[in-house]
Amino acid sequence: MSNENVLLSIKDLHASVEEKNIIKGLNLDIKPGEVHAIMGPNGAGKSTMGYVLSGRDGYTVDSGSASLAGEDLLDMDVEDRARAGLFLAFQYPVEIPGVSNLEFLKVSVDAQREARGEESLTSAEFLKVAKEACKQVNLPVSFLKRGVNEGFSGGEKKRNEIMQMILLKPKLCILDETDSGLDIDAMQVVANGVNSQRSSERSFIVVTHYQRLLDYIKPDFVHVLADGKIVKSGDASLAKELEEQGYAWLQTEPKEDELED
Amino acid sequence: MTEQIDKALAREYEAGFVSAVESETFEPGLNEDVIRRISEVKGEPEWMLEWRLKAFRVWQEMEEPNWAHVDYEKVDFQAISYYSAPKSMKDKPKSLDEVDPELLRTYEKLGIPLVEQQMLAGVAVDAVFDSVSVVTTFREKLEEAGVIFCPISEAVHKYPELLKKYLGSVVPTKDNFFAALNCAVFTDGSFVYIPKGVRCPMELSTYFRINEQNTGQFERTLIIADEGSHVSYLEGCTAPQRDENQLHAAVVELVALDDAEIKYSTVQNWYPGDEEGKGGIYNFVTKRGICHTNAKISWTQVETGSSVTWKYPSCVLKGDNSIGEFYSVALTRGRQQADTGTKMIHIGKNTKSTIISKGISAGKSNNSYRGLVRMNPGAQGARNFTQCDSLLIGDQCGAHTFPYVESRNPSAIVEHEATTSKVSDDQMFLCQQRGIDPEKAVSMIVNGFCKEVFKELPMEFAVEAGKLLEISLEGSVG
Amino acid sequence: MSEWLQQAIAHADSIQDGFAEQRSASLALLKDTKWPNRKTEAWKYTPLRAVERSSAVIKEDSPELMPQSVLGADFLELTFVDGQLVALPDELPDGLTITMQESSIFATIKPERHLFGLVNDVLASDIVIVTVAEGVQVEQPIRINNLLSSGAQAHIRTVVELKPKSSLAVVETSEAHGNTLATAFTEYLVGAEAKLEHYRFALQTDDNVAVGGSHFKLLEKAVLNSSIIGFGSQLQRIDTDIIHAGEKADAKLNAIYLLDGQELFDLHATVEHEVPNCTTEENIRGIAADRSRAVFNGRIHIHRDAQKTLAELNNRNLLLSDKAEINTKPELEIYADDVRCAHGATIAEIDKKALYYLQTRGVSKSQAQLMLSFGFINELIDQMPNAELAEWVRPIIRDRFAQMEVK
C-alpha cells in the first residue's frame, strides 16, 4: 500500500514494557475518515498500542515505524504527538485535584491552536466553546470548575474524554475501551459524541473487548489483535462473528501474518 | 472490658527461673584491667585487645543517650559484672554429652532445641549462657556446605582475617554509647559466614540466656553473606526473674554482599520486670546491616520482653537495587517501655525499603515507634513504604510514633502512614456472642493485628511468637 | 547563650509597661535556656546561623510603609513598622476593643518551650490586646501587618481574645525589605462556642529572618479554621500550637510552603488534645525547588483523658530538584485508647500519570509540571473561607511557580 493519502501508518512495530515484548510486529494503515475497530482478548496488547503511539514513558519501541500524516510519530515528545493530531481517550482517565477542568481544557486547546498557527481564544470565547462542548456530551457546566476528573463517576470521566476530543479536533482518535464500565445509556451518549465528530478528515481507532460499542459506532474495518499483532481483519461482520464465537477459535486457525484487507 | 484485659496481662513470666549452675563471675566494675582480663580469659590475640581498649576510651568520652521516649533509672556501669561463665565450661565441651546437665535442663525448660529429639527440627543452634557460648549444634553438617557457624570468641582465633575486615564495619565503635560499650566488653555471640552462592541448608539460631545476678550481657553477632548466598537466622532471649535491672547491650552486624540475602528474626522475651516495674532487662541493642548491590536484608522482630527496650534494627542500602525490610511486633504491658523502630538509609539507585510496625500497648506501658527513612541525593528511583499501627489495650498505656523522613532526591518516593486503634467493645461483643471466651477473643484480635508481621517469620518461630503473644495476653480479659 | 541573644536582651530593661512581671519571668527562663544546636530536637534541621549573623537592629526611626492592599477586601488594619505600632483602625465595630493595657492572657497560651517566643515576651514593645465581646460577630477581618524596613529588627506581639459565642477573622501578614529580623507571635484564646478564622502569610523571601508563632487555646465547642502560607527565606520558622482545652472543640489547619532558591522554611505544628471529644484535621503541603530546604514537624499529643478524640494529619511534599531537601516528622503521642488518630506523610515527585495525561492533550512537559504543582497547592487555597484572600494569594503563588525552576 502506498503512503499516499494514508493518515496513520504502522509498519512492523515491536514494542515492550519492562523488557517484556507486548507488540510483536504490528502493521496497520488508516486513511482519513476511516473507523477501525481493534478487538482482541485481554492481554493482547490493545491498550499498549495506544500508549506506544502516544509515547508513554516506559513503553519502548524496539523496531518498526509509525507515522501520522507522513510525520514520524515515534521521534516526537508526547505533547508534540498530541499537537500533530493524535488523541488518546483513556480507559481510566486520571484524576488531577486542584487543576480545574476549565484551565486544563483551555491550556490544551491553546497548545493545539498554537501548533496550528491559530490565535489563542480569549477566556470568554473559550468558556462559550467549552459550555457548548459540555452540552454535547451531557455534562453539567459546573464540571468545568471541578478538578480534572476529580470525583467524576466512570461515565462522567468518559464523557469528559469525549469532550476533550471535541474541543481538540484531532486527526486521529484512539478510543481505549471507552465502553468499559458504561451502561447502555452512557455508552449511547459517548457514541453520539464520537459519531458527531466523524468526518472525512478524521479517523478513529476504536479499541474494545466487546462488539456492543460497534453497534453504535459503526466501523469500516475490524481487526483482531492477539499476542501483539493483528491476526485477522475484516469488515463489521467480523465483530459479530467474534461476539458469537469468542476469541478462542482464533487460536485454532493458523496464524496469519498478512492483512486480509 | 479493660479490667478483663488487665487481668489477662498479669501473667507469670515463664522463663523467670534461676538455674543452679556454678559460675565463675568477675567482680563488678569496669576499667581497662577488666577489659584486659576479659581478653585474657578468652585468650585473645593482641589486635583484639587493642580494638577493645580503643573502644573503651571512646566510650568514656561519650554520653548516655536520652532522646528515646523511655524513663529509667540510669545504669551504674561500675555495679555490673562484665564476665560470667558456667564453671563447667572451663574445658569447653566437645559435644552435647559433655555439657553440664543443669545447663541442658535450663534450655530444655526454655523449650530450646539443644537435645537430640529437638535437633530433628533441623535448626542449628548456638546457645549463649551469660557471657559464653555453651554449645553450637549441627556444626559438621554446616561445614559440609562451607557454612561457618561458631561462637565469635572462637572465630577470633580461627578466622581473624574475616573478623578484622568486618567486625565494626557496619556498626563503628563510635556509633553510639551502648555500641561502644559492647565493643569494649563483648564476651561472646555468634559468627556466621556463608560462602559465595551457598544457600544455607538450615535455619541458624542463637539463644541468649542471662542467668547470673548483677551481670550484663554484651554479645556480639556478625553475619557475613558472601555474594549470591542466602541465610535465615533466628535469635531468642530469656532471663531469670530478678528484682534488679540487668543490662543487655548487644551489637549485631550483618553484611550482605552482592546478590546475597539475610533474613534475621528475633523473638525477644527478656524478663520484663514485675507489674510495678521492678526489675527486668534493659535491652539497649544496636543492630544494623549493610546491603551491597542487589542484596536484601530482612529484619523481623517480635518483642514482648525487657523492661526498657531501645532498639533500631537498620539497613544501609548502599548497593543499587538493594532491599531492606523491617517487620516488627512490639508488645508492652505492666510498666514496660519500648522505643523501637528502624532506620532505612537509601544510598544506591532503585533501592527499596518496607517498614511494617505493629505496636501493642497494655497496662501502664509505653510503646514507641521511632524510625528514620533517608533518601540520599544518589538514591535515584528509590522507594519506601512505612506503615505503623498501634493498638491500645486499656486507658493507662501510651502509644507513640516518631518517624523521621528525609529526602534529597526528587525521584525517590517515601510514603509513611500511621494509625491507632483499640480492641473495640463491638469486636469483643461479637466474639463473645459467638461463644468465644474473652481471652481468646483478645488474643485473636491481637494476632490478626500482627498477621502481616507473623507471616514473615520462619514457620517454627511464627508458632512460637503466636503462643508468646497469647501467653502475654493470658488472663488479660475479664 | 549566644552573643546575638545577649545583645538582644540587653534591650529588655528599656521597656516600661504593664507586662513587667511576665517579662521578667520570661527573661529568667531565657537565661536558663540553652542556645539550640543540631542536637536540639526542635532545631535539628534548622540552623540558627542566620540569626547569629544578623546585623538587623531595633531602630529608633523608621520610614513610612504601607501594607499591600487586597482587592475587594476591607480590613481593620493593625500596622506595625519595624516593631512599632503605627496605625490602628479609626473606628471599631461595636463589641470589638483594641488596647495596649495589661492582659491576663499574655504569655499563657504560647508554650514556654519556644525560645524565640521568650525573646518576644521580653522584647515586644507594643503589645496589642484585641477583645471581641460575648456574642459579637465581627464581620470585617482584622489584619495585623508586620512591615520591616531594611536593617530592622522587630518583635511584635498580639493577644486576641474571643469571648463566648463571638466570631472573628484575623489575617497575620508580614512584608520585609532587605536584611531584616523579626519575631512575631500571636496568642489566641477562643472562648466557648466562639469561631476564629485565621490566616498567616509569610511571603517575604531573600534576606529576611523570621521566627514566629501563632498559638491557640480552644475552649468548649470553639472552632478554629487556620491557613498558613509560607515562602522560605534565609530563615523562616513558624511554630503553631493548638490546645484543645474545652470539650467538642474543632480545629482545622491547612498549611502550604513553597520554596525556591536557597530558602529555608520550618513549620512546627503541635496539637494538644487535653480534653475528650475534640477533633483536629491538618493538611500540610509543601514544594521545595532548587536548593531550598523544607522542614515540617507535626505533633499530635492525646492526653490521658482525651477520649473520643478524632485527629488526623496529612503531609504531602513535592521535591522538584536534586539539590533541594525535605525533612518531615509527623508525630503521634497517644495516652488514651478510645481515639481515632492517624497521620500520613509522603515525599514524591509529580504524579507521572497525570503528567502523561496532560501531555497527551498537547500541554508541554514544563507547563504540565507547573499546572500540576500549582494544582497540588491550589486544592488547599480553594478551601480558604475568605474568597478575597484566596483570589489575592492565588496569583502570587502562580507567579512564584512561574519563577521556580521546575526540573
UniProtKB/TrEMBL annotation, chain A:
Sorted alphabetically, which Pfam families does this protein's record hold? Answer: ABC_tran
Looking up SMART domains in the UniProt record yields: AAA (SM00382)
Domain ABC transporter: residue ranges: 8-252
GO MF, one example: ATP binding
Q: Which UniProt keywords apply?
A: ATP-binding, Nucleotide-binding
Q: Which InterPro entries match?
A: AAA+_ATPase, ABC_transporter-like_ATP-bd, FeS-cluster_ATPase_SufC, P-loop_NTPase
Give the signal peptide, or none: none
Q: Which PANTHER family match?
A: ABC TRANSPORTER I FAMILY MEMBER 6, CHLOROPLASTIC
UniProt similarity note: Belongs to the ABC transporter superfamily. Ycf16 family.
Q: What is this protein called?
A: Fe-S cluster assembly ATPase SufC
Q: Which organism is it from?
A: Marinomonas piezotolerans
Q: Which gene encodes it?
A: sufC
Automatic annotation (TrEMBL), chain B:
Name of a matching Pfam family = SufBD_N
The UniProt record lists the SUF system FeS cluster assembly SufBD core domain at 208-449
- Superkingdom, taxonomy of origin: Bacteria
Q: Which GO biological process categories is it annotated with?
A: iron-sulfur cluster assembly
Q: What are the residue boundaries of the SUF system FeS cluster assembly SufBD N-terminal domain, all occurrences included? A: 143-200
The protein's matches in InterPro entries, at most eight in alphabetical order, are given as: Fe-S_cluster_assembly_SufBD, SUF_FeS_clus_asmbl_SufB, SUF_FeS_clus_asmbl_SufBD_core, SUF_FeS_clus_asmbl_SufBD_sf, SufBD_N
Signal peptide span: none
* Family to which the UniProt record says this protein belongs: Belongs to the iron-sulfur cluster assembly SufBD family.
Q: What is this protein called?
A: Fe-S cluster assembly protein SufB
Q: What is the lineage of its organism?
A: Bacteria, Pseudomonadati, Pseudomonadota, Gammaproteobacteria, Oceanospirillales
TrEMBL record, chain C:
Annotated GO biological processes are:
iron-sulfur cluster assembly
Domain SUF system FeS cluster assembly SufBD core, first and last residues per copy: 151-376
UniProt-listed InterPro entries: Fe-S_cluster_assembly_SufBD (IPR055346), SUF_FeS_clus_asmbl_SufBD_core (IPR000825), SUF_FeS_clus_asmbl_SufBD_sf (IPR037284), SUF_FeS_clus_asmbl_SufD (IPR011542)
**UniProt-listed Pfam families:** SUFBD_core
Q: Which SUPFAM superfamilies match?
A: Stabilizer of iron transporter SufD
Q: Which PANTHER family match?
A: PROTEIN ABCI7, CHLOROPLASTIC
Tell me the protein's name. Fe-S cluster assembly protein SufD
UniProt organism field = Marinomonas piezotolerans
Name of the gene encoding the protein in the UniProt record: sufD
